[in-house]
Please model this.
Amino acid sequence: MLTTPVIRAIRRARPGAHLSYLVEPQAAPVVSGNPNLDEVIVTPLLRGAARLREDASLALRLRRSRFDAVIDFHGGPRSSLLALATGARERVGYTIAGRGWMYTTRVPRPRGHRRRHSVENQWDLAEALLPELGRPTPANDPVEMFEDADAGRRIEARCLALGVDPAHELIVMHVGAGNEFRRWPEASFAAVAAGLASGRPNRRIILTTGPAQAPMADDVRRIALGLGAEAGAISVACDLGLDELRGLVARARLFIGGDSGPAHVAATTATPMVVLFGPTTPSVWGPWRGAGAATETVDAGELACRPCDQRVCEPGDFRCLRGISPGTVMAAAARAMARGLASGADPL
Model:
């Protein structure tokens, strides 16, 4: 997602170029409808001998395509090897120990925390190839994901099946996280869900997660019902693809979630957002969208251990996330929705 501003910029700088994007299936919906790309190459993520065969076949395909230049935004072992395999005259990647030699142009990426957005780090790679790009701004080069018509129809049908029609005020809460460092407690999400639903008979809340975290969403709903929320006001959808998630958020009045991929998907819409930050910081990972978009970021404030490398919680109590109160998130939600109404941002 955070490479999509670069795609737009490269197309602007080279309108006649043929731009191909190599991606694995899970992330393919992010770029598959991007009008600035001529080709999206989707490669499966396999294991063992099957992966070796796939990568050999893919390497041959890339070599035969005779690319003039390759930018490796990922920097992992597989992507750097495939960049080398293209045989492109110009290959741009980060300075990485043991793999930097695979690139013809290497861009330093200092270790440790810098108050610099990840989009700008990605931009450095493209700027090394095209110095005329200048510097990015969220207003001129936002993150982008274009709605797929089929996904839109699936989401409309799903909403109706959940009892949510266009007349309802919809809120999407992404309550799952595979990483404990990004996981706000279920009880806290439930308190917010119950509070947002209280006294609002026309409001509907859909809780989303990835399939592996579906039990978390079920727990949030159960706790929220125990706090007095009406059963019909809160539903669960944990099997959405990224294209469907974007379609759902685009139809909502508000998105609430932690610093995760779904938050960056939500940032491609006009929907007001509240994003919770624990060990990470908004200066690096905040929603990359124009100032006119209603965006609230929430954290526990200054902590000696924050940001961290998300391997071991030094205090042991995950205070960076658990220190965020439901009341703080409720207040941020009210501000975001008010800004959204004032700006005239309407869901699809």
In short: The first helix runs from residue 4 to 13. The radius of gyration is 21 Å. The chain has two domains: 4-133, 149-343.
